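Re: [ENG-882] Designed sequences occasionally contain unexpected residues at chain ends

Forwarding the minimal case from QA. Structure tokens:
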């Protein structure tokens, strides 16, 4: 997508979330004839291929390393700052359980 080419794929988690069927490329069911038909259409229709390639390039910016890293860091920060403080290792509860182990 980032190189400005339409993408061919099989409907599956990940690909189905990334490729917009008929916009940034084609998704086919897991069937050789269906895949071949869509690939043939893409090969024969220059205007469609260019249009999808342009759309794929535009869509690829959503997956840039800079953007995805920023999003991931925000998730980690939210998790770290929203978590409850943990008990200290020598808390009253731990000491009371410890006396039964002796």
């Amino acid at each position: 997508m980032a190189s400005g080419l339409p993408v061919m794929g099989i409907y599956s988690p990940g690909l189905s979330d990334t490729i917009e069927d008929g916009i940034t490329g084609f998704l086919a069911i897991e069937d050789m004839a269906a895949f071949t038909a869509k690939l043939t259409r893409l090969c024969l229709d220059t205007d469609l291929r260019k249009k999808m390639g342009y759309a794929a390039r535009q869509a690829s910016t959503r997956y840039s390393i800079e953007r995805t890293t920023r999003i991931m860091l925000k998730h980690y920060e939210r998790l770290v700052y929203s978590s409850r403080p943990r008990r200290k290792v020598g808390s009253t509860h731990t000491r009371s359980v410890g006396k039964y182990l002796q």
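QA comment: On inspection the terminal residues look reasonable. The chain has five helices and two strands. Proposing we downgrade this to a documentation issue.
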